[in-house]
């Protein structure tokens, strides 16, 4: 149930019996040997699988996010935070104007999380709405499975290496990269980040067997479906 | 040659021998009986076909654009002009930082055109860059073929009805809708626009035979390829 | 009936029987051998003649507009699009607060047209208002007369050469300049624009007889008056 | 020597031997029985007389300024401070790009003075420039003459009543209005300001003989000319 | 009665019987031999003494203000005017949301005064509120006492030298510095300001006996208390 | 070594041998029975103790932060994220202009963390600078001690109850409050947050013995000192 397969009459009909909607939030940024669009591909696919199963419309995802620390790697796109906050605000305004009230954002990029602060302010102006940012990769069921394999798992490592964001014909390094110190990164400009993290993997092996990855993936879809049904706090005083 | 099928090493390699790049600009807004994502689907596909043929990388497209006049139709997303200008500015900054110098934007939505003014100001700060907005549907070769069929052709009419943005199972009205007066629309808020334009078609039949549409489509791809090769003005004094 | 000849008591009185108002939008930018203020002078004069004839108050015009592509020519003033959008928004807020509901902007500069997008968003917040941007030089009756003389007519050519924006003592070149390719201009920074267009004329002769020009002028004033009476779409559902 | 009587070639020539330029800053706001454009008319005229005498080009003035406290009076236009700051910043950028280095702003409205803070920040980015805001009515020679007539002189009183901003056919009240307490005004919204100040005069008689006014006017022009020649601080370390 | 000594229950209780609140506005900027935080220390202390005496809660003060002209002196912090206006606007929104209606800002820095324009616009959106900026050092009773000692008294001179903002162990120059011409300063970037004003004192002796200073201080506290009780204009039509 | 005890000469001297500086970031927001300024008091005190020990200057802290979710509790101040980002950006610009290069922000409020994204963009424009946000309460040594006492410890619980932010005369509830589900909070407007969390404590007892608290405090100061010496990544390629 994708918005791109619907016209406006169909959205109007849907809103007569439900007010939930999904939008993926991605990023186009270095992911070492994996696709530059890894966060966009994965969040979009999680959203589409869950939305289809739950009969909730899924908007096309945002391909670009906040990634200032990766602009030293060619191909990366960085949206500044005030731009990104304005963009999300405009989208929320539009969804609310359409009639959606429970808005579920499937986020694929940790760097996008600060947009929560813009959403908090938006909510104060739209008291009948609810907005959830779901960091699908960081949810308990997904994290449990990741850690069962290895605690050395991070940005651009095996943990993000799924069949749908690998580049055909690119073989992965065989070693396990030691974890970088993420606390060091925050103080650095992008040029120093590139010097510090080499190929872009933050730590961990580069690839794991597909059956392990599909188990993680299924848990991600399941958990997203579960939240779409159960996460909402009912209106209290409004 | 899509950015989503490339990693950062590959972009770095590409930039050693070429500096062109493509990005589609779409919109998610009422298109009468057609997909809400019509402008996004068509501009993305034109861009991808042309980029693949010309070996120029294509970024994922922007799904949302400036559509304030359509917010009375559910499903429409409207990005305000200062947000949209900031978004394009951030993307241009990132592409320039990566090393791209000739940036080709395939635009699928007339309402996005005003972003040209933001681009003009950006260019004054980046004198070694060139940026083209290509309104693919309004280019001479496409327009010639459209007018050969009918001069009554506009937003959400047959002119935008391609196999890839029709909604399965939705049948089209058989009549030809008289053209609305676009000059009247500009003065109206979105609620009055909806009252004025009914189903959303601005004028014309709703569908034409696919062979006619594929001829238009081919011309659109051809012309885009031609421009990617020939449109650029060489640096003059910088 | 110029606002500069009215005090606030008189505006309050006027608003008891009419809610229309006029404001010119100009630009100060290179116009080859003609006045830098050509667009400001002409839009102001069209507005004042029409407003006087129709008994509708005319605000003083905006002398500066969006002209990023001409900043390579000394004397040009460029207002960035977010500034210009904010300026028009503040003015519309003020006119609405005063009690005006039908606002007619006489625009003298094509580069100002993108402000329409800001106006569209403003209208959605002020559903009882109507706002028209009237590009006086591009209206059907004016264009018909221009084309009857020559299709080679553009920025800073004879088409904009009226008695009230010529510089005393400056003689015009006698040749007819070939039209530049406007499609090339959009991709260029201002420095390259200057190198490309030489004296600033976009194409055409530099001067035509005053009787031809006065015929064009009269048509411009007439058409403006006609629109001030007839262009408005009545409120529909608000 | 008005910019509206110059083309870009002439500005380019001027800049070979001088780098000074003048721009008036006005406001369109209630002035009791006087023209709504009083501040715009007076600052423009002072600027034009001084510029002509000193052979310094004068740009057309800004008709609108910051006047939030007067929006309860119909006809008033209020520009918000961030808009006004952005507008002045864009203009300064343009003048600097043209080649002007000593920029003299003739201000006719006290409410515009806070834009000085935006100018201060702009100067830090343009160390070779100088910018003066000249509040012509508050300068020592003008104030000396005003106070010699009466210390009860303020906004919209006799002090601002010149032949060029009176409304034909409007007779002035004969009494002298007691001064309002300006300190009270700052805490009030516009609706309460209107209730507080009645016709809009802040205090004083409504009119004085023209010969007194012309003496004040001449002093204003003289002082402006004097400053245009002598106010500038030479570059020190840049 | 300081907000830092209150919890939210206590503020809720207070608001049942009073709606006044105080916030100091300071600056951290060069003050010659005195503390960089002079304006912050003094405005905070005036506010706290007055608030305690009057039983009105005092928020912690803003340590930073608008000081673009002093950035050539190490230690100075400059907040740009649009940032500062947004900051004050957010604070006013919060205080109003809490339930405060009469907001009293004790300002210690002349450069902050332009924020009045932002406040004026905010008031128009909150007609039941009143906001006063009190420049404590410039109030009549304080000024009377300052001038009785010397008319040569200005930024960073004896006039601002109180026991609570002197640096221990720093001795003051014994001479009286001639007044600089403040009218010259406004046209200069910060680097030239530093060259122009030397140690940072705008004019006057560097220190006076504490008994003189305590008399000034007491007048400042008294006058602040008086205004907190008497300055307010009652609602008129709202 | 507090900036409020220094003049600009002393800062200039300091910068000849060191380039580190500290600034606390607080918030004024509900903390149940504790001071509204808890986050401001604690971050300021940690900063001041560490700065004094390490001979690094400490600026006065920011009393207000991003707290949109608490505006339903009287006394809370909420700074919007674009305002807060602009504020931090202006401060970083000023510190860099002064000559500081290693900037250490002691943050007392989790809601301020998203400002990291603004800082990342700022760093890309100032490649010779380093900026660290130190969430003092969440650092490993502090967290280890907190968890040794209880894992039920959160906003406004015993974990934040130190001698310096208790309200004299207010007694604490004796029970242990069950932890609220923080994941639920993010989707809610402030009014619903207040209904959901009651007195404002997120979970845990309200008070623990001072000796336990002082052990935590000491660890916080120690760790801050350690980081001030050791956290910095040396310049790599710039």
Write the layout of secondary structure elements.
6 copies of one chain form a homohexamer.
Chain A: H1 8-14, E1 20-25, H2 38-54, H3 81-98, E2 102-107, H4 116-125, E3 130-135, H5 140-149, H6 182-185, H7 190-197, H8 210-230
Parallel strand pairs in A: 1-2, 2-3
Q: What do these coordinates show?
A:
6 copies of one chain form a homohexamer. The first copy, chain A, is mainly α and 238 residues long. Chain A has a single domain, classed as Creatininase (Rossmann fold). Helices cover 40% and strands 8% of the residues of chain A. Chain A contains 8 helices and 3 strands, in the order αβααβαβαααα. Chain A has a 3-stranded parallel beta sheet. Chain A starts with 7 loop residues before the first helix and ends in an 8-residue tail after the last helix. Chains in contact: A-B, A-F, B-C, C-D, D-E, E-F. Chains A and B meet through helix 1 and helix 3 of A and helix 1 and helix 3 of B. Chains A, B, C, D, E, F: This is Creatininase family protein. Chains A, B, C, D, E, F: Keywords: Hydrolase, Metal-binding, Zinc.
Largest interface in this structure: A-B, 54 and 54 residues
Q: Detail the poorly predicted runs of chain A.
A: none
- Number of distinct beta strands of chain A: 3
Helix content of chain A: 25-40%
Rg of chain A (C-alpha, Å): 18 Å
Largest sheet data of chain A? 3 strands, parallel
CATH class of chain A: Alpha Beta
Instruction: Give the helix/strand class of chain A.
Output: mainly alpha
| Average residue-wise pLDDT of chain A | 96
The end-to-end span of chain A amounts to 30 Å
Strand order of the largest sheet of chain A: 1-2-3
CATH homologous superfamily descriptor of chain A: Creatininase
Please name the CATH topology of chain A.
Answer: Rossmann fold
Q: How many structural domains are formed by the residues of chain A?
A: 1
How many H/I helices of chain A? 8
Binned strand content of chain A: 5-15%
Assembly classification: homohexamer
Inertia-based shape of chain A = globular
Can you tell me the CATH architecture of chain A?
Answer: 3-Layer(aba) Sandwich
Give the H and E element order of chain A. Answer: HEHHEHEHHHH
């Amino acid at each position: 149930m994708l918005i791109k397969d619907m016209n406006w009459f169909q959205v109007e009909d849907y809103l007569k019996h439900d007010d939930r909607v999904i939008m993926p939030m991605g990023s186009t940024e270095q992911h070492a040997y994996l696709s530059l669009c890894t966060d966009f591909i994965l969040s979009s696919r999680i959203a589409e699988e869950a939305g289809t199963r739950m009969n909730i419309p899924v908007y096309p995802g945002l391909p670009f996010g906040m990634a200032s620390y990766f602009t030293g790697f060619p191909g990366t796109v960085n949206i500044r935070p005030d731009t990104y906050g304005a963009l999300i605000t405009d989208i929320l305004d539009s969804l609310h104007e359409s009639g959606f009230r429970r808005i579920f954002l499937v986020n694929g990029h940790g760097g996008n999380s600060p947009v929560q602060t813009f959403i908090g302010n938006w909510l104060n102006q739209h008291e009948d709405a609810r907005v959830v940012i779901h960091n699908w990769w960081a949810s308990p069921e997904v994290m449990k499975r990741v850690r069962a394999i290895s605690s050395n798992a991070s940005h651009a490592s095996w943990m993000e290496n799924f069949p749908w964001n690998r580049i055909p014909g690119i073989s992965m390094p065989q070693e396990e990269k030691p974890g970088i110190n993420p606390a060091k990164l925050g103080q650095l400009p992008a040029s120093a980040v590139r010097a510090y993290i080499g190929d872009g993997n933050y730590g961990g092996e580069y690839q794991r067997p597909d059956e392990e990855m599909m188990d993680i993936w299924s848990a991600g879809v399941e958990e997203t479906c579960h939240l779409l049904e159960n996460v909402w706090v009912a209106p209290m005083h409004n």
